[in-house]
Design a protein that fits this description.
Layout: H1 3-8, H2 13-28, H3 33-38, H4 41-49, H5 56-66, H6 78-88, H7 95-105, H8 109-120
Helix pairs in contact: 4-5, 6-8, 7-8
């Protein structure tokens, strides 16, 4: 499959380039995707992030959903941070608070992430985001 074929199914030019670059690296052996399965989470994130178009957040999502790693909680995920703010009633989640909660969730961080996404999406009626300007629903006033 080429660049134009990927674009014809709705892929942006850049993403199509990244996919082709990745597939070429796997095919020619310069990137060993199977080796990532044997790596610790941090090492696998570094390795995946070395690919064009793959950042830390994308690498973490690959670990959680494709590789089914059990302990992934992403500081770069805005919904996870929102879920933490809502659950723990913080106006802000800085890295220090994030790491404290991440340690609490370990070794089941991926499951905690699923719950935090649900909380951020409104799964608990009446629970609001305490960050300034973020706790209101559209059309609602306080």
């Amino acid at each position: 499959m080429g660049l134009s074929e990927l674009q014809s199914v709705g892929m942006t030019f850049k993403k199509a380039e990244y996919i082709l670059d990745f597939s070429e690296k796997v095919q020619n052996g310069s990137f060993d995707i199977e080796a990532c399965n044997r790596m610790e989470d941090a090492e696998a994130i570094r390795e995946l992030s070395s690919l064009k178009g793959v950042g830390v957040w994308t690498a973490e999502m690959i670990l959680a959903f494709c590789m089914q790693r059990p302990d992934i909680v992403s500081f770069g995920d805005l919904a996870i941070l929102r879920g933490m703010r809502m659950l723990y009633r913080h106006r802000e989640i800085d890295r220090e608070k994030f790491l404290k909660y991440r340690r609490r969730y370990s070794p089941c961080g991926t499951v905690a992430s699923l719950y935090l996404w649900a909380i951020a999406g409104g799964a608990i009626p009446g629970l609001r985001d305490p960050a300034p300007g973020r706790g209101k629903k559209r059309g609602e006033s306080h």
